[in-house]
Design goal:
The structure is a homodimer. By secondary structure, the first copy, chain A, is of the alpha+beta class. Helices cover about 25% and strands about 30% of the residues of chain A.
């Protein structure tokens, strides 16, 4: 009923076995990919991250098989929207141990289509009281243990986004986006060594887009003090691209407020959006 | 194939919708209950904990309906074994926000039978390198985000159990058991304010069994230093009851080694096992 278009291991399906370790323990990974003109513009970055996360979770990741499934499925779907790909550790017996070398153990791949919901190019963030746990071994990867985001989302009004801190009060990310802060003329993004998800759009911006506009981004710890004196803030993800943050509120105060230029765009953020849009028109506004 | 006997919302089933939030985010809880002579001896403790966890995760927990399902299912199952009960937040649209007050949102209850696997009354623990994250808001509850246990289990040889520490090096629990340490004549168990699962057997021992043998257990931070000079150590859970820990190894040394009495039982642990067995014969050896 809620499922729009779902394929499990390449076959149309609506359900998964209750013995899937993705369900039992969250033993799996996911990627949420923008579908544009029938293609997945950031597919390689997504598959790289999937493979890296699978290594951490000891899941065999057969990229060739996954690409084969995508080739088969993409022509059956609308040209615009988003695809959620989930790779789980497959079926398990009772108990935490996993035997990825056992030939009976076969990872499971779900690919699901969703239409693009109405996005916004400017957002307001509310500081969440819920703090992300420190977990250096799982930090960065996009696994299926997402109760942190569920708990944080429960604090927010409908259709709003939140700012998440770690246990020591460092800024980490938004609910499903990474964050960049322009501070003293330099773009900073939070270090994700101990918590958070390292988004592929974040990677693209760090490695290609921000250097292309002549700046050198830096990854470091960012506390609320830096945020409060930031010149610009934006969030980014692989579905929406770059969205200006107009305001961040929390602790009964305004933590950040964007200075509007006459064109109502934030100058440096607009440069990045334009550069991104040059190479990836779907993110170009 | 792996599923032995599964009921979903009271009906025989083998799968769940891929839109279940238990699968998408681990937005759910579970209880693993000993089945003995056709009954669930610790059912009330399990349901209390389930209800408390559901409150934290904003899942509506209809205990009357769950009991009704159990009454219907129990006569269909073998008299001995264990039941795993999973309560999820039900089906979700894409996105983390959850609307538990929406009438279309219905939690999902899975009840699955497993035979009891051959247990051991004496165990050896290996210290895991993987550390549990600090997460005060989710600590104690038995939710479906279990990658911590999957990661820790991956370090262990087959059929062995591990000892888990938190980020600061405090002893928290075994892979799927709580831990008690006899130190200077007093039973201590780790504080689970920041990580770990608060087991119902732990609760039963703390509140009833240990006081009944004339001792006052204490819940506190326990570091490896305390463990190394402990007189006795045992682990406990709601399936196996109390198991003596004979040895704990890690960091290239023996961290704890039990002193055997002539009867090969640890004196104080044996007293607790006997007291537990008096009231719950299934845990009585």
């Amino acid at each position: 009923m809620f499922v729009t278009e779902l394929f499990v291991d390449g076959e149309p399906a609506e359900s998964i076995p209750a013995s899937d370790r993705g369900f039992l323990y969250g033993h799996g990974l996911f990627e949420t990919m923008r579908l544009w003109q029938g293609n997945l513009p950031l597919l390689d970055l997504h598959l790289d991250r999937l493979e890296s996360g699978a290594r951490t979770l000891s899941i065999v990741c057969d990229l060739k098989a996954i690409k084969h499934q995508l080739d088969f499925i993409l022509p059956k779907l609308p040209a615009e929207g988003l695809l959620k790909l989930v790779l789980t550790a497959g079926d398990g017996l009772r108990g935490y141990p996993y035997h990825s070398t056992n030939k009976e153990v076969k990872p499971r791949c779900l690919i699901q289509y969703f239409p693009l919901d109405g996005g916004v190019s400017e957002v307001r963030l509310k500081l969440c009281e819920y703090r992300l746990p420190d977990n250096p071994r799982l930090a960065g990867i996009k696994h299926l243990n997402r109760l942190d985001q569920v708990m944080a989302a429960a604090e927010l009004p409908p259709n709003s986004d939140g700012l998440l801190l770690d246990q020591t009060g460092n800024v980490i990310e938004a609910l499903s986006s990474n964050l960049f802060v322009l501070y003293q003329g330099q773009w900073l993004t939070p270090s994700l060594q101990r918590s958070g998800v390292a988004g592929v759009m974040r990677q693209l911006l760090m490695e290609q887009v921000i250097p292309a506009v002549g700046l050198t981004p830096r990854c470091q710890d960012i506390d609320l003090g830096i945020l409060q004196v930031a010149e610009e803030v934006f969030i980014c993800n692989a579905v929406r691209g770059v969205s200006s943050v107009m305001e961040i509120t929390g602790l009964n105060q305004t933590l950040f407020s964007a200075v509007r230029t006459p064109s109502s765009a934030l100058t440096q953020t607009a440069l990045i959006q334009a550069e991104l849009g040059k190479h990836y028109p779907c993110f170009g506004e």
